[in-house]
From TrEMBL:
Species for this entry: Sideroxyarcus emersonii
SUPFAM superfamilies reported for this sequence: P-loop containing nucleoside triphosphate hydrolases
The keyword Transferase is assigned to this record: no
Protein name: ORC1/DEAH AAA+ ATPase domain-containing protein
TM helices/strands, residue ranges: 298-316
Keyword Transmembrane helix listed: yes
Keywords: Membrane, Transmembrane, Transmembrane helix
Length: 317
């Protein structure tokens, strides 16, 4: 692998949503700020929508890590450390549900597991709801806020979303007992247009559209990830390579990571210390989800037009 060749400590363009690689470009920072403000207000539902590969899961994990940053010790993201106490005791109790294919009872059991409620697997839904309600009330008495994050929410059954809405109906005189953050693809908006979930739709108090990287952010994104991975120089990607990388990915972070990784491998195979445009072009050609380079089409069109003009000029002589 190319780590030693480029002086890297770890892979800079891994697809794992590692929060240490979080890049605070305008779009992602606004999304994170929206989540933090919404969490502090304590209102019912929050919605984050973004296309495939635009970094929703990484934003979700960064959000949860930020909420948990004042804990003395932490466990895996979304898993509660019930033993934490003291002056930095968590104000937020968070739950992360990555699997959206849960029918209502399975979803409630998943929440019970996240909140460390001991229930029998044969418990009926009524008793399960009762146990969850009691736990939410206990958290509220302790001054803790409960926040549930659902990833890939566009795939969750509407009945399960409705059960969550009913749980968010629980409230004290001051605030809700539970908040829900929905992370989903644009199809989530289509599902929420259905009449059967209009009450849930009305409960969405904050929402944000997550887009890809702008052209002027691409170079900083690459430098940021390389620096986190241990690179000590300026950059490994030439200007033409960066421009081409944006054109063939439209700024979608997951595609950027895939093609940048392949381009580094190609540069390494040639013994070069910098990634050139042709490395990116070859890497994009090996990535079915990449976009066509519109600049290349423009050049080919201009060349064809020039050839026609020259031919006409010769014929008119």
């Amino acid at each position: 692998m190319y780590l030693a060749h480029f002086g890297l400590r770890e892979l800079p363009f891994s697809l794992t949503p590692d929060t240490s690689f979080f890049f605070a470009c305008t779009n992602y920072q606004e999304g994170l700020n929206t989540l933090l403000v919404a969490a502090r207000t304590g209102e019912g539902f929050i919605k984050i929508v973004g296309e495939v590969g635009n970094g929703k899961t990484l934003l979700c994990r960064k959000f949860l890590a930020t909420l948990s940053s004042d804990r003395e010790t932490t466990t895996d993201i979304g898993t509660q450390d019930g033993g934490v106490s003291g002056r930095h005791a968590a104000k937020f109790i968070t739950a992360y549900i990555p699997n959206p294919y849960l029918e209502p009872r399975s979803l409630l059991l998943a929440l019970a597991e996240e909140f460390r409620i001991e229930v029998d697997s044969s418990i009926d839904q009524h008793m399960l709801l009762k146990a969850l309600t009691l736990t939410l009330l206990n958290f509220a008495r302790e001054g803790k806020r409960v926040l549930v994050c659902l990833d890939e929410a566009q795939a969750m059954p509407l009945e399960s979303l409705e059960v969550l809405r009913l749980l968010t109906n629980l409230e004290t005189e001051k605030r809700k007992l539970m908040q829900v953050v929905l992370f989903g693809q644009p199809e989530l908006d289509e599902r929420l247009k259905q009449n059967s979930v209009r009450q849930l739709r009305q409960r969405i108090s904050f929402q944000y559209q997550l887009n890809g990287l702008h052209r002027d952010e691409m170079d900083r994104y690459l430098r940021h990830r390389l620096a986190v991975a241990g690179f000590k120089g300026e950059t490994l990607f030439g200007s033409a390579a960066v421009s081409l990388l944006h054109r063939v990915t439209h700024g979608t972070p997951r595609l950027v990571n895939i093609i940048a990784h392949k381009a580094l491998m190609l540069a390494y195979a040639e013994g070069r210390q910098q990634v050139l445009a042709r490395h990116v072009r070859k890497a994009a050609a090996d990535t079915p989800e990449s976009y066509q380079d519109w600049m290349r089409r423009v050049w080919w069109g201009a060349a064809a037009a020039l050839s026609i003009l020259l031919a006409v000029g010769i014929w008119l002589r």
